[in-house]
Amino acid sequence: MNLDAIAEDVRGFRWNRIPPSAQVLLASNALTLITAAAFGLDPAEIIWVYWLESIVIGAYTVLAFFVMARRPVSVPKEGSPAGAYGYAIFFCIHYGMFHGAYALFLSVMPWFVIDNPNLLGMGVTALILALSHGYSFVTNVLGKPSELARTEENLKRVMTAPYSRIIPMHLTIIISGFLMIPLEFLGMIAEALFQGPGLAAAQWLGKFIVLALFVGIKTAADVYTHLGRYRQG
């Protein structure tokens, strides 16, 4: 990772220079935090929501291959539809194995295990992120014919793009997941200092602080990789 390039991007930050799809991504992550707080989600539940988000990213990639396969030839040296279908099948197998192993990892780490998941809250937050990626798919893929050309170079780029997007995101998730460890100690301190409604408020505040740090770190990694992939949309 080029830290100098990141620093330069930060110094040159202008909101109106951010592509609309990245603005939607920022807004959806902010709304995720608000929704998580409203439903009382734990940081562990948000981590599983982000696992679902990466599944959605993969689903849109498969959809891109199918759209590519059904388009007529538009540029020289464009391959046959069979090539796009072949890439889609290989991607499904490889991407599925990656996320199966990742789910297993989350399942065995104590602070990522959920005893009684809030399925409604998790579903709503996952839907928010899925709609954000849907908007990006329409504007950055369907809206740009060059993204859908069946050249070998383009097929490889479409297949590898989700990995360059989700690997930094999930490494950030795993690292920031360790922020949940102090949450237990914050809960113990709250129990020692507060009683009744004050205890519930203190516990909620501690969980929200950890959640905000976690979502903030993940959002920064997510938006930076998104901008690297779609500078123009």
Description of the structure:
There is one protein chain. The chain is mainly α and 233 residues long. The protein has one domain. The protein has 8 helices and no strands. The longest helix has 33 residues.
Walk me through the topology.
Blueprint: H1 3-11, H2 20-39, H3 43-70, H4 81-108, H5 119-142, H6 152-177, H7 181-193, H8 197-229
Brief overview:
This protein is mainly α and 233 residues long. 78% of the residues lie in helices and 0% in strands. Helix 2 packs antiparallel against helix 5, helix 3 packs antiparallel against helix 4 and helix 7 packs antiparallel against helix 8.
Short descriptors:
single chain; 233 residues; mainly alpha; 8 helices; 0% strand
